[in-house]
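Could you help me review a protein record that somebody else here produced? This is what I was given.
***
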Amino acid sequence: MKKILGIMVFLFIVGNINAFVLKKPVLAIGSNEELESKAYYKLYEIFKIKDVLLHNNEIYILENNDCCVYRFDMKGNFKGKFAGMGAGPKELYWPQRMEFVGDDLWVMDTRNARIQIYKSDGTHKKTLTYAELVMPSEIAIVDNSIFISSGKLYPRKRNLFIMNKQGEIKKRVNISYKLISKYMSLWHGAHIIALNNKQILLGYKYLPIVGLVDKNGKTTRFADMSDFYFKYREKETKFNRPPLGFSTTAFSKGPNNTVLIVTCDKVKRMCNTIMQFNSDLSKQLGEVKADFHVWGIRYFPKYKMIALISEGVYFYEVK
């Protein structure tokens, strides 16, 4: 297995915003035995990682292979796990994303067509089910509104549900913007995450398009990222998708009210360039490169840390 060595230094800075810099990891949790000798690396058998959160000085890792949520302390020591694969009252099947709503952990139980709610210690608290919530996959929180992305194959449709903290649906927004792309419809799904300016960043699988949605579900801006995306793709091959997609693969809010988007290198078959933009996506501020494939990214301002999801979870300090 190829060794994961770290992150290259920042390439350039534009404007007055201090761009982020990632050096070597301060902590990594994963299953790569070749890295076990590294002081920062904690060896643990987790493989198909979907999401990671920091909460009350604990690390929560959502794993898609055995459908469990793993808990670690901030030094990477294992504290337990909960859920498990199945359709039972406490179980998960193909979970995609999670978020803390207060001290309650909401997990998108995608293939079971429901949302599972656990206490922070892993105790099961509640299950939310709705006839129209067919495949809940994404969650983001702005103020008291909880955004849930859900889709279905037939008809190919994707909705953004806006709920309150009690799990009541207050609004539905259709986000199947088929006219954006002349190549394919966007039922594949929308990845969503809350930004620092009380907006939702929304991105699509396999397409170089991201959008901003306000807390009422209204689209405020779409940004065509083709100018950046096509640097890493053969223009003449319309349907030759990059590995694991483009913006939906990984993006996050970043330091100083910026946005981080991971793009792909067509030649190396890796999504490993982390591009930094200002909050309205109108200007690129810089970029860093990882020497490994980035499947997901999370920024935790309270802890001043960024987590990159690959074959493990790699934590970096940021100022």
In short: The mean pLDDT is 81. Residues 1-43+225-319 form one domain. The radius of gyration is 19 Å. The helical segments are 226-229.
